[in-house]
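Let's practice the habit of predicting before peeking. Look at the sequence and jot down your guess about where helices and strands might fall. Then scroll down.
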Amino acid sequence: MRIALIASPFISVPPVRYGGTELFIAHLAEGLQAKGIEAVVYCNGESTVDTEVRSCYSRAEWPLASGTSGMLKELDHLSWSINDAAKASDLIHINSASAITFSRYTSTPFLCTLHHPFESALTRMYERYREIQYVAISAHQASVHPTLAVKTIHHGIDLTKYRLQPVKEDYLCFLGRVAPIKGVHVAIDVAKLAGIPLKIAGEIQPMFQEYFDTMVKPHLDGRSVEYVGEVDLEMKNRLLGNSRGLLFPIQWEEPFGLVMLEAMACGTPVFSLPGGAVPEIVKPGVSGEISQNAEEMAAAIAGTSHAPETVRDWVEKNFSVELMVQRYIDLYQNVLSGGLQFHAPRSLYKGVAA
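Done guessing? Here is the structure:
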């Protein structure tokens, strides 16, 4: 079996810093290779994923110079990639809505992983291409697409890349885009209520510079609240591993949230608000706590303890890359054998957060 995985041309696979979708593609591609399945990743030429890589753009570009140039570049990359993949691949696995329309030009089967929350315009487009197999990354995400035949496969991570840190330091951390929907301002409130220093890491995109300047920057003092910039994998291990807890105070219906798995892989519990896929990932009392507001979250941090080994064990049993890869292999084989059926959404896993 030869699987073509189509990434965007903008961020390297795996990402050096920001890029949840690119991290997913890297883990899946290398996991397929480990299972003896040939994987080719279409991405930019700076990518270091340990599989065959094909590119029509040699360098990454993030953030984008402009929305228009980015759209044109992605369409050019997608048309070239899918045309090339159709010549030698058994199945084309796409990861963006922009790619689905190219399926009409080839008989090669398509599978599309949905990485975004519900948007009615996108769902209407997906409904026009019912021959594509769609995959949701959480049961919550599948539930908002009731008109599609969606399978649910949770993300998994390569645990060999994350170190269990049994001894914690006295600080909390936030890791993610510095944006209103990610709730950085709430994380600051939680840390102050708990009386524990907070380290913030993540990308500040130009569109959210004002948010950073008005809602985050005034609180930065280098002691109680500190911004440490973007982090690579080694810095993630140190930031997450040494922390008493990852704050995940999301303000939207998060489709998944890979950073939660990264923290847990380091033995660090996640303290979150309940939006989107959070209840599928955080098991209260085991891998973290789910609260309804900042006050409850601060109280949970002060009133609970989580053994780092237990937190890591939760990820190993429920969100390993091996589990994710096998579920995709099973689905690939089902699609290629003609077993694809259009029916109400159902999951390929048993609920793990119950």
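How did you do? Residues 341-354 have pLDDT under 50 and may be disordered.
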